[in-house]
Amino acid sequence: MKKISLRVLMFVQAIVALCIPLYYHLMVVYRLNSNTPVWIAIIILAAVSWLKRNSDIMDEYAKKTVQIADAICFKAALILMGIIIFPFLLLDGMSRYLTGYLLTGGIFILVLIRAIVFLWIDKYGMEE
Q: Tens of pLDDT along 59-97?
């Protein structure tokens, strides 16, 4: 069986993270009260874990690259979630749906930023 590259795995995780805002949209717009999306999420997570088992083994460079991408995403999460979204939670006139869309969209954006930063560093290298 052919091994899956770490780049592909990062973008598969980003696609899976796209399911979070889509699921929230289904819950808000269609008032979906079914367990079916939960079972679909379990199947998708099982498929991603299978892909992780069949991905290339991370060498030291890949581990360092993932650590740098995670550190950048942590800083972006502090800015995005702490400074931009947190004040919306404190305002009385804000719609809870808008706050939910901002939170779920923010999670997707963070995973996408992680994949893009990893791809950038993996392609162009990192300078210390």
A: 777 778 888 888 888 888 888 888 777 777 777 766 777
Range of the domain at 118: 6-124
pLDDT 10s digits, 61-70:
777 888 888 8
Q: Tell me if 1 is assigned to some domain.
A: no
75 domain residue, yes or no: yes
pTM for this predicted structure: 0.73
Q: CB–CB of 114/17 below 8 Å? A: no
Question: What single-letter DSSP state applies at residue 83?
Answer: I
**Which candidate, 51, 103, 39, places its Cα nearest to that of 77?**
103
At residue 38, φ and ψ (nearest 5 deg) are: -65, -45
The count of structural domains within the chain is: 1
